[in-house]
Amino acid sequence: MTESTQTPKEIVDVLDQYIVGQNEAKKAVAVALRNRYRRMQLSKDMQDEISPKNLLMIGPTGVGKTEIARRLAKIVNAPFVKVEATKFTEVGYVGGDVESMVRDLVENAIQLERADQYKQVHVEAEKQANNRLVKLLVPAKKKEKRQNDMQNLMNMFTQMQNGQMPSADQDDQEDVTDDIREKRMSTAEKLKAGLLENDQVEIEMDDPSQQPAGQSTMMNQMGIDLNDTLSGLMPKKKIKRTVPVSEAREILTRQASEELINKADLYHNAIVRAENTGIIFIDEIDKIAPGKSQNSGEVSREGVQRDILPIVEGSQVNTKYGTVNTDHMLFIGSGAFAENKPSDLIPELQGRFPIRVELNELTKEDFVRILTEPTNSLTKQYIALIGTDNIKVTFTIEAINRIAEIATDVNHNTDNIGARRLHTILEKLLEDILYEGPDMQMGDITITEKYVDDKVGKLAQNKDLSRYIL
Ligand SMILES: Nc1ncnc2c1ncn2[C@@H]1O[C@H](COP(=O)(O)OP(=O)(O)OP(=O)(O)O)[C@@H](O)[C@H]1O
Q1: Which of 25, 57, 463, 465 has the CB geometry, 3.0–4.6 Å to 334, for a possible disulfide?
Q2: Is the pTM of this model over 0.90?
């Protein structure tokens, strides 16, 4: 997995489809990403000379900082994690805990890589799932027990010789008569033709309650997963569910995919992917620089900066999948810096975040655009949600303007939470339709300026009430 080759302009074009304004920030992230790609094209000597150019996003809450970074990762299919820097100042945290951000990034890389590998084996996995379905729909008689045990032992022996975990394969324990073979053939035909999708079938699956639970911080720090180690040695507990064929096929395809993919490749590729394309978003980085308010008992802020520094500078972190090098990861620091400045961070850390970009506060006009323009904008989401109750909602332009105006006012009069205010206002605005919609034949509903005023306008004028409700 190598770095994306999209140009900064191409990346900004896609970001524009989701995020309104903040052009400087969009450009900066796209350039930072391209710089990493550029650095990786150079000789090792040259790479060592050029330190990675990480980015600091400065701006108030809810103006798109996280959204830009998360979207960037999605566009280039890169592993992404967001951590709150303040988490490491909490009582009980110790220095090594900061490495958990790298481990979480690798977990995310595994998910992305697994999805890619599933795609590669999908055709074969689905074929196997359909074969299995046929056998479940037309079961054969079980073989005699003694014969069965012998067969099982031989199967397990062969599997172990091939380096696999032994498992008893049910197919080999069946007595398939001609009659059953014929029935299976006709079932396979029906299955192919999609005639059995709603038939019920019993399938066996891993018991989810046996999946890894929490474990000690110390083990995490060492990159050891006890559950993984043990689960490799002990047989997994199985549970049975009766589900429609369509759902069974999905579950069986997933099970087959898991067996078809090569785990060693999966872990290796995921680590390479995290190392070369990973993005770590460190939120509230301003809160680990000295400021007015430090709670007693908090871990020293400078200490946390010193713990984070080696990771940002490039170091090796142990994970349960292997050692990960952080040299080429892209780090994006983010914060309001209302009570302090980036220059209050320790100089070494400042030097690692040389690209600085300020995000603007959002205006009423921005809110209008956020409500309407982005792919899957908030209003489009609500229209789709309510549409599932056969109600067609439309918003007039005046209503949108009024929502944006109210959001700006409430942000001004209470706390400024940026575009998050639009979420709370829309939820309040549409609460009756969301509640009563499914029971009433509402037909088409037009949200007008008056409707907005009646539902949220008056509320917004009451500072105390709006603090709680909007
Ligand atoms: N410029 C924007 N365009 C479109 N949507 C936006 C914009 N700014 C914020 N939003 C929406 O508002 C919500 C909050 O934004 P986001 O998570 O990016 O905030 P933030 O700037 O990272 O704040 P914080 O530092 O508090 O995490 C998201 O749902 C996001 O989609």
Answers
A1: 57
A2: no
